[in-house]
Amino acid sequence: MDRDREEGNESSVYVYNGVGAVQAPDDVTHVRVGSSVTVIPESAFQEHRKLEVVELPEGLIEIRDYAFDGCRSLKRINIPSTVEEIGEQAFDYCVKLDGITLPEGLQRLGEEAFSSCESLQRINIPSNIERIERGVFLFCSSLSEVVLLEGLEAIGKDAFSGCKSLESVTLPSSLKVVGIESFEGCPRLNEIYIPDTIESIEDRAFKNCNLTNFLMPSLIGNDVDISIVGRNTSLVSLELPETVEQLLDYHDSTEEQTVLNVRNIAVPPACEIHIDLLKTGTDLGVAFPDRNIDRMIEALQQRFDDLPIHKICYYQSYNSNFTSDQLNNSTEIKISQRRSKINPTGKQQDCLGMTPLHILACSTKPTIEMFRLLIDKYPETLIMEDNWGEIPLMYVIWCNAPTGVVDLLVKSYKSLYPEYEFDWKDMLLTLAKRNTPLKNIQKLVQTQTSSFPEQSYDMQPIVTELSQETNLNQTGHCRRFTFIETFRYLLRISITNRLDSLDVKRFHIDLENSIKSLPDKAKNREEDTKAVFNRLTTYESIKEGTSVLELALWRQRLKIVGTRGQESVGMTSLTKSSAVSIVGQISSLEMYCLIYCPN
After folding, report:
1. Side by side, which strands form the sheet with 246-248?
2. DSSP 471
3. What is the pLDDT of residue 280?
4. How far is residue 163's CA from residue 245's CA, in Å, rounded to a whole number?
5. Which of 504, 506, 515, 597 sits CB 3.0–4.6 Å from 593 for a disulfide?
6. Gap between the Cα atoms of 173 and 341, Å rounded
7. Helix ranges (DSSP H) in 417-504
8. Alpha-carbon dihedral of residues 394, 395, 398, 402, nearest 10 degrees?
């Protein structure tokens, strides 16, 4: 028998020594693999749903296909440093496995090796892994941190699809291929570093993510499939190389068609665009009110004609050697050998109403030196509005520019345009409706409260409008609702000041519980949101009524003391809590009479 019982421990430990077939009982909770074992056989412990702990020995080389597939109670396992291969679906559906360290010597991860490990939070891919196979981390919904080391060359189909907690990824410079739907359905993925070395990004690789700006690598070819970034509702800027000849949507399904709902984009003059990418109802349609798609395409192809500084700011992301000195040279026009003047095109607006400062604010690779230069040369562009009515500050926050850049713009506004009034409500509504990452929205709110506190505004109408979202936008196109985390955050801060003024802990707890219980589905939010605001109003009335009642009772007590020379029994220990307990039983008329009417 390959089974024993640990002394002093009532739980059974199954010991596998590599002799014969694995015969672990169905209810085994603890497995120890003997020191002589080098291979764990295929399906060895598959569907042992009560298995919680596994001990593996140094010297183990291979964990074969399905070895621990469906071990739904497995919480921890240490992969020995000697393991070189983990087979297909080896740990598939180990839903409680929350942490695992892959050894440096690991050379292969089989398809769906850790698929549906719903509790797995962090993974570091060793440098010997050249390819992440299909679905290795598919539906790992708690996976929030992924480290990909140099040496990785390809990420396979669905490798990280459905990783709902993943927020940022840095792809190594050794990477060449990003496979079909490799990061599809990662709704919190809002930051991704794309190296210049990428040669292929396949269909729908980043579909249904939360990217705000995206740089299409120059090596991926002349035909670009826009479904790569399909249905990223927060996407505001798409940078395309000058070599692109066609913009296509390779997804054939009408239901899944990609719509190019961006603002900052330039199309090379000879580039052809799949016409459905520019359907009416997109943000680009707002920039071109006549909705004529042919004229829209022509304008985008000619966007930078006679606007050299705009062009430099858009394409500088493709030049790793680009410096602010080069940008500075473009802002000056030589009059003579010793004299020059400022190039006036730096403050002109292109067909989208954008200045070079707007474009730089949308860039995936901006530097603070470039911002300083443009603000110094063209300070008026700080308050110039594009065709959507936005100023550069909006885009540096939307596109998650470095904190130093945001601080620089804030300082510039305060020193150069101290009286400028920002439209905080419109900016906040735009970001929320486009499902911009919560941290970006928080940055906007914090910028107003910390740097422009005098420009306060009422948050309740914003929350009310967001609570009324429907399945279709005004043009009939389906859209995603504001993320519930964002909605809860905005609702919370919309009542903070009023709630704090009540200074009653019970009220705080009750309303916080109501906010936490708001449904994910937007169709149910309106009534629940109204209930929160109504409950707050009720609490304010109770607080006001309590104060009035206290005043009335104290007035009555003083009257008694004045007429009898002593305090009436029961009036000396009036407290706020006792007033609250009876205020609900006293009408406004009764309180009025108590205060103002004679005996």
Report:
1. 223-225, 246-248, 272-273
2. S
3. 55
4. 33
5. 597
6. 41
7. 424-433, 438-451, 460-467, 484-502
8. -110
- The CA distances from residue 555 to 355, 544, 559, in Å, are 67, 17, 6
The label of the residue with tokens 């990909």 reads 148
Phi/psi of residue 195, nearest 5 degrees: -75, 155
Phi, psi at residue 512, to the nearest 5°?
-65, -40
What is the DSSP secondary structure assignment for residue 342, as one 8-state letter? E
d(CA 241, CA 266): 9
Alpha-carbon span 393 to 397, nearest angstrom: 6
* pTM summary value: 0.86
Token pair listed for 29: 């909770």
440-491 confidence digits (pLDDT tens): 999 999 999 999 999 999 999 999 999 987 644 444 344 457 889 999 999 9
The three-class DSSP label of residue 264 is strand
CA-to-CA separations, 269 to 38, 107, 132, 387, 539, in angstroms, rounded: 61, 46, 38, 22, 62
Give the end-to-end CA distance of the chain in Å, rounded to a whole number: 94
| Number of neighbours of residue 258 by Cβ within 10 angstroms | 24
Other beta carbons within 10 Å of 393: 23
Nearest CA-CA partner of 111 in 125, 126, 91: 91
Q: Say which amino acid occupies 499.
A: L
Q: What is the DSSP string of 152-189?
A: --EE-TTTTTT-TT--EEE--TT--EE-TTTTTT-TT-
Q: By the 8 A CB rule, do 411 and 382 touch? A: no
CA distance 145 to 147: 7
Structure tokens at 130: 């050249």
Q: Is the dihedral of CA 225, 262, 372, 337 positive or negative?
A: positive
CA dihedral of 271, 274, 276, 282, whole degrees rounded to 10: -30
Residue with tokens 């050379």: 107
Which of the 8 DSSP states describes residue 11?
Answer: S
Every domain of the chain and the residues it spans: 460-599
**168-197: b or e for each residue (b if 16 or more CB lie within 10 Å)?**
ebebbebbebbbbbbbbbbbbbbbbebeee
- 533 SS3 class: helix
Which residue type, as a one-letter code, is found at position 529? T
**Amino acid in position 107:** Q
- Confidence band for 186, pLDDT divided at 50, 70 and 90: very high
Nearest-angstrom CA–CA distance, 352 and 156: 38
The pair of structure tokens assigned to 289 is 């009110």
Whether 14 and 2 have beta carbons less than 8 Å apart is answered as yes
Q: How far apart are CA 502 and CA 496, in angstroms?
A: 10
Question: Which residue do the tokens 């802002």 mark?
Answer: 331
Q: What is the per-residue pLDDT for 553?
A: 67
Q: How many secondary structure helices (H) and strands (E) does the chain include?
A: 16, 24
Written as six digits, the tokens of 391 are 């100023």
Partners of 76 in beta bridges: 53
Strand order through the sheet with 154-155: 131-132, 154-155, 177-178, 200-201
